[in-house]
Design goal:
The chain has four domains: 8-168, Heat Shock Protein 90 (2-Layer Sandwich); 173-249, no CATH class; 253-356, no CATH class; 361-473, Zincin-like. It has 16 helices and 18 strands. The chain has helices at 27-45, 80-83, 94-105, 159-166, 220-225, 235-248, 252-262, 277-290, 299-304, 306-314, 324-336, 346-356, 369-375, 378-383, 431-447, 454-473, and strands spanning 12-15, 51-54, 60-64, 109-114, 117-126, 129-140, 150-155, 177-180, 184-187, 194-198, 201-206, 212-215, 294-297, 318-321, 361-362, 394-398, 412-415, 420-424. The strands form four sheets. A seven-stranded antiparallel beta sheet has the order 1-6-5-4-7-3-2, covered by helices on one side. The chain has a five-stranded mixed beta sheet with strand order 8-9-12-10-11, covered by helices on one side. Residues 160-251 form the MPN635 N-terminal domain. This is ATP-binding protein.
């Protein structure tokens, strides 16, 4: 119960007018509010750090060195000074009165000391309604009119209550700031869960976030979500601001973590931030800047066009699997991007390869006698499939098809935009190899399909070639 020190006629009391007590609040919620207001006073007055300590008599003290709290602060539902400052945490009036009511309900003794007097708590009849008992504040004069700041004294709460309340403040954690932006800061996620802080006070936890965050610039959605209880603020309230924070980041440590996590899509170990398309897009652009050899592909690209993936690797690129919706976003971006600023998707890769690809076509007259004998059987080979497909305009012999063939050798290529079949000159050494490659590429021309399995396609080509060779030799 509240302790009353008797100073005769100088004792004053007033009704705290708490209409509804927050039944779900525990002691640590109340202590959180007291700490929040002390930290706010420190920020406003630019004074020394607050102290939280226990004296030998068992009382806990939450001390700030600001201007000192007086009873007028308890009569205000909202303090304009706090409402107009986005950097502050507490809300004098509402939060503090809720804290006092909670502590009183849990039988914690409270004394608030400052140069303006000592405030304690008691219950008394409401003025004009004798049958209604409400919580009142009782103010007695102080002997120390030169006291600096405010000393919140609590008796009856546990050390666990204090530590649990402190754990809700970034100031009292060991979380490391990785980067600060105009919207807030990215924190290293060292624990099991990620903490979401607003001006240094934890309002939520996330189980699958890459980072923890401290939001310091509050938008309307966050302000609305900071209800009276200020606990369990929903993800929808802070998602937008976290996106803003991440898209402002440019430090190596944050970008590298985003880029590494972006590559976990295929493994299923990606964190939730990278499931947001705009954050994933930002990470992709940064990845493209840091690692010029990056290409972005979908799971379907891997499944249905492995030859394209092989070509990327052959050219020294590193394909990274990302979701389809992110590829669509990249394609939209590429449409208006300047040269050199595009993101290399499968479509963009093909476009760039085609623009750079100038094969060295060998004139038939330059072939050796043996090569010419094989080449001259082209029409007879095509008779097996009803003649040259109408879509095929030219069949050309080239020295090589790709500049770099590190991973595997490409001996034939169907170029649909130009209606050309290109066959590597070395295939003319054996009729079976030339026939197999020719029929293989014509098959692509007729079907419009790409290679599915490189090993399967290679074996298929050999079989076709041997079969055609035997028939032609008959």
């Amino acid at each position: 119960m509240g302790v009353r020190e008797n100073y005769g006629d100088n004792v004053r009391e007033f009704d705290l007018n708490i209409e509804k007590i927050l039944e779900n609040w525990e002691n640590y919620h109340a202590i959180r509010e007291i700490i929040a207001n002390a930290l706010d006073e420190q920020i406003i007055t630019k004074t020394r750090d607050i102290e939280i300590k226990q004296s030998n008599d068992g009382w806990w003290h939450i001390v700030d060195y600001g201007r000192g709290l007086n009873y007028h602060h308890l009569t205000q539902n909202e303090n304009e000074e706090k409402l107009s400052n986005d950097k502050l945490i507490g809300r004098f009036g509402v939060g503090l009165k809720d804290a006092l009511a909670t502590l009183y309900r849990h039988n914690v003794k409270v004394k608030i000391k400052s140069k303006y007097g000592t405030i304690t708590l008691k219950t008394a009849s409401k003025v004009g309604f004798e049958d209604i008992i409400t919580l009142h504040a009782e103010i007695t004069p102080t002997n120390d009119t030169y006291m600096v700041g405010t000393d919140f004294c609590l008796y009856g709460c546990t050390k666990e209550d204090i530590e649990k309340a402190k754990s809700l403040f970034l100031k009292f954690t060991e979380d490391t700031s990785l980067e600060k932006t105009k919207y807030g800061e990215v924190l290293d996620n060292s624990g099991i869960n990620s903490g979401i802080y607003i001006n240094g006070v934890k309002v939520a936890e996330e189980t699958n976030f890459l980072f923890s965050y401290n939001i310091t610039s509050l938008n309307a959605q966050i302000k609305k979500a900071l209800n009276r209880e200020r606990t369990n603020v929903g993800r929808t309230a802070y998602t937008g601001r976290i996106k803003d924070i991440l898209k402002e980041c440019c430090s190596d440590v944050v970008i590298e973590k985003l880029v590494d996590d972006l590559q976990e899509f295929g493994s299923g170990n990606r964190h939730d931030e990278l499931s947001w398309s705009d954050v994933a897009m930002y990470a992709s652009m940064k990845m493209s800047e840091l690692k010029k050899d990056t290409t972005f592909v979908t799971a379907d690209d891997l499944k249905y066009t492995p030859s394209l993936i092989d070509d990327m690797r052959r050219s020294g690129y590193n394909p990274v699997v990302v979701p389809d919706n992110l590829i669509n976003k990249m394609e939209d971006y590429n449409t208006g991007a300047d040269d050199g600023k595009t993101l290399t998707t499968a479509k963009q890769y093909v476009k760039e390869e085609q623009s750079r690809f100038v094969p060295n076509v060998i004139n038939v007259s330059e072939l050796t006698v043996d090569e010419r004998n094989v080449y001259d059987k082209t029409d007879r080979i095509l008779e097996f499939i009803g003649g040259k497909p109408s879509i095929v305009k030219e069949i050309q012999i080239v020295d090589k098809i790709y500049e770099s063939e590190i991973f595997s050798e490409t001996v034939g290529l169907w170029v649909p935009d130009e209606g050309r079949v290109l066959i590597k000159r070395k295939q003319l050494k054996e009729l079976s190899k030339y026939a197999g490659t020719l029929l293989h590429e014509c098959g692509h021309a007729i079907s419009g399909a790409g290679d599915v399995s490189r090993d399967f396609e290679a074996e298929l080509t050999d079989i076709i070639g041997v079969l055609a060779s035997k028939i032609l030799s008959m």
